[in-house]
Design a protein that fits this description.
Number of helices: 2
Strand order of the largest sheet: 1-2-3
Strand content: 15-25%
Radius of gyration: 20 Å
Number of strands: 3
Mean pLDDT: 84
Helix content: 40-55%
Largest sheet: 3 strands, mixed
């Protein structure tokens, strides 16, 4: 009986190891989606053209925003996403930005 269960147990352990190794990528992808949705949907930030990169829970934002208020709001929105460890705001304020 134990010999019959051994391949199943080994398969289960292998699958759990694969999921654990892939967990970071999934989490970063989820954080990316959530941050992008918040930036795009905010009327102050208007973040449709902003760049967002997430690595190990650290969000880096790049691009141009119209006002300092929009830059600050972008940081606040990104920090408000559960799981974000920190935010690097490389946004540039350019009043001519559409």
């Amino acid at each position: 009986m134990i010999l019959k269960l051994f391949p199943l147990l080994l398969s289960l352990i292998f699958t759990m190891a694969m999921v654990a190794a892939d967990d970071k990528a999934v989490s970063d992808n989820v954080l990316y989606d959530q941050v992008r949705m918040k930036l795009v949907s905010d009327l102050t930030v208007k973040g449709g053209s902003l760049g967002v990169v997430v690595e190990q829970g650290v969000v880096t934002m790049t691009g141009k925003v119209k006002t300092e208020k929009a830059k600050e709001k972008a940081t606040k929105l990104a920090k408000g996403v559960k799981g974000v460890k920190s935010v690097v705001n490389k946004l540039v304020v350019d009043p001519t930005t559409p």
